[in-house]
Design a protein that fits this description.
225 residues; alpha/beta; 2 domains; seven-stranded mixed β-sheet; 7 strands
Length: 225
């Protein structure tokens, strides 16, 4: 067989070079297409996450106290609100309450934090659902706007404590209970139609229960849902 001419060999080399370059660019395009698909998948996932957050109650400034009032429930709620307010300064907050009450000092720490939020420009709406009792009822009164669902019950009573130890220790605890009760009375009487003296008379040695219409009449609630 006759040897290939120099021109033929050069032409074949150029073809192989072009084929190699074509394969390289096709591989690069395939890589780019794969990266694009990954990016598009990430975008879709992020959009879903954003939509899920937008539909989440916390994104709307809605928080819940559906537990006893104690250090754990109050601290968790304060941390949620504190994290939320960094992204939503001055925006309104709704606090839903279904609670039998609990520890007075824990409740008062939440009341103080709600006061801080008010001073920072947040409008607080409290919504009672089901049972709003004892310290839960005091927290409910912290709302700029206070609401109850129509079948809810609100209950307030004297601060309860169990005096133990020596007579002196019992006297000290009674004094502390009196001071805690005075703080609770200040909150309860601030917006209601009853004075602190009237509230004391109603709750002496008994629980003062109010359904939604009664709470509305006594001005412990602004709106019935």
């Amino acid at each position: 067989m006759a040897a290939k001419s120099l021109a033929t060999r050069v032409s074949e080399a150029e073809i192989r070079k072009l084929e190699a370059e074509t394969a390289y660019y096709e591989a690069d395009l395939a890589k780019t297409a794969a990266e694009t698909r990954v990016y598009e998948t990430q975008v879709v996932a992020q959009e879903r996450e954003n939509n899920a957050y937008k539909n989440h109650p916390l994104a709307r400034g809605e928080f819940h106290l559906f537990a006893d009032v104690d250090d754990d429930s109050v601290h968790e709620l304060i941390l949620q609100m504190d994290t939320w307010k960094q992204k939503h300064p001055g925006e309104p907050i709704t606090l839903y309450i279904d609670s039998p009450g609990g520890i007075v000092m824990s409740g008062h720490s939440l009341c103080d934090y709600l006061d801080i939020l008010k001073r920072e420009g947040h409008h607080i709406t409290t919504v009672g659902i089901g049972l709003i009792a004892s310290m839960g009822a005091v927290i409910h009164q912290m709302g700029d706007t206070r609401k109850m669902t129509k079948r809810s019950w609100l209950m307030i009573h004297e601060v309860q404590g169990v005096a133990a130890g020596s007579l002196t220790e019992q006297k000290d605890e009674i004094k502390l209970n009196d001071r805690l009760q005075a703080q609770a009375l200040d909150i309860l009487a601030a917006k209601s139609g009853a004075s602190k003296t009237q509230i004391k008379k109603r709750w002496v040695r008994k629980d003062w229960w109010m359904d939604a219409p009664e709470a509305m009449k006594e001005k412990f609630v602004d709106e019935i849902l």
